[in-house]
Write a structure and sequence with these properties.
The protein is mainly alpha-helical and 169 residues long. It has helices at 10-32, 38-61, 75-96. Helix 1 (10-32) runs antiparallel to helix 2 (38-61), helix 1 runs parallel beside helix 3 (75-96) and helix 2 (38-61) runs antiparallel to helix 3. The termini are far apart.
Length: 169
């Protein structure tokens, strides 16, 4: 009782073959996993079994003369295959990434240490790569000078410079 006859009903036969192929691919992806989450693996296996079972039913059990083709049923296997391949690629990329930050790098998750020694600020120090840089076109920050009021930023049209205060005398 084989219903696959490519000369008499090629559309039906190809539909059954594609159902079986989609089901087999989903079963394999669910079985090997490859770094996908357990839920996605279970869905792959369940839908793969469903597709294979339906293909078997249509190929060997079905005795009707009318059937409905659900071409939308092939969207799910494509989406599941894409999600599985994406998870496998992300897992392989995660293996290649360094896990620890470089020595001396800022770690926002590090516990607070009140006894840690911090280097004193030196406004005349040369530029080091990785440090913050003022925006392009902005004037460099002037070093702090005690007793001299700070001058307004050049980009602020409402700011007025203040003359230095003269000592009384």
């Amino acid at each position: 009782m084989n219903n696959l006859d490519f000369s008499a009903e090629p559309l039906f036969s190809w539909y059954v073959v594609l159902l079986a192929l989609s089901g087999a691919i989903m079963l394999v992806l669910g079985a090997i996993g490859g770094g996908t989450k357990a839920g996605l693996r279970i869905l792959n296996v369940l839908f793969g079994l469903g597709f294979l079972g339906y293909a078997y039913y249509l190929a060997f059990v079905f005795k009707g003369t009318e059937y409905i083709l659900f071409f939308k049923a092939f969207i799910l296997p494509v989406a599941m295959i894409v999600a599985s391949v994406k998870a496998i690629v992300e897992r392989s990329n995660a293996k290649n990434r360094p896990t620890a930050p470089p020595v001396g790098a800022y770690d926002p998750n590090a516990p607070y240490n009140p006894n840690a020694q911090q280097a004193p600020f030196n406004p005349n120090a040369p530029y080091q790569p990785g440090q913050s840089v003022p925006p392009q076109g902005a004037a460099p920050a002037a070093p702090y000078q005690p007793g001299v009021p700070s001058q307004p930023v050049a980009d602020n049209p409402y700011a007025q410079p203040q003359p230095p205060q003269q000592p009384a005398g």
